[in-house]
Structure formats: structure tokens, C-alpha cells
Amino acid sequence: MHKDELLQLHSLLCQMKRYFEDCGLPLVGEFGEYDALQVSPQHIHKSKTDHKRAVFLLGKGLADVVMTGNPDHQARLRERFLRLATAVTDDEDDEEKISSDPRDRNLPAFAIAALSH
Q: Cα(55)–Cα(53) distance, rounded to whole angstroms?
């Protein structure tokens, strides 16, 4: 997904969050982790990874709100979004460790040959 598409998704999820807040639902911190991240769709200077994490944390919060009446489904969905949000950070760390030598990227032989030229 391109960064501009991610920003658009982030914006749409924020609109959903705002809708739930404006409806007067008794929210008790479902969006606390997202708010603590301090990344909004208007922060276009933030990294793509920051916005991915924000989208997953928003998704987790929205899942908490939507699944309020079903704790089993809520817990599974919440855990999935939390794992995805954590994986985004781990992926960024792995990308920083990748060497510039194509042979160190575990690519197939034809891809290494193409990059070597």
C-alpha cells in the first residue's frame, strides 16, 4: 500500500472513531493507545510505519467498540490488531538491518543476478 493510500485509510478510520465519540457511546479508553501514539492523518511528515501502526491501533479500538457485547470475539480481534501494530515496528527494525549487498537479502538467484547488473 502506498503512503497516500495509507493516509486515506487512516483518515477514514479517524472519521469512524469521531462518529462513535459523537454518538455518545460510553467509551472508556478504547482509543487510548492510538491517542498516545500522537499520529494523525494530517501528520503527513510522519513515516509510513507510524501511520501503519496508527491504523492498526485505530482498528483495535474500533473493534473494542463494535464487539462490546461479545467478549470472546473482542479479545481475539483486539489481539490480532495489537500483533499487527507490533509487527509493523518489528518490520521497520528488520529493514534497517538489511545489507546493501543483494546476496544478503535471501533473494532467488535470478533476482540477485538482475540486481547485480
A: 5
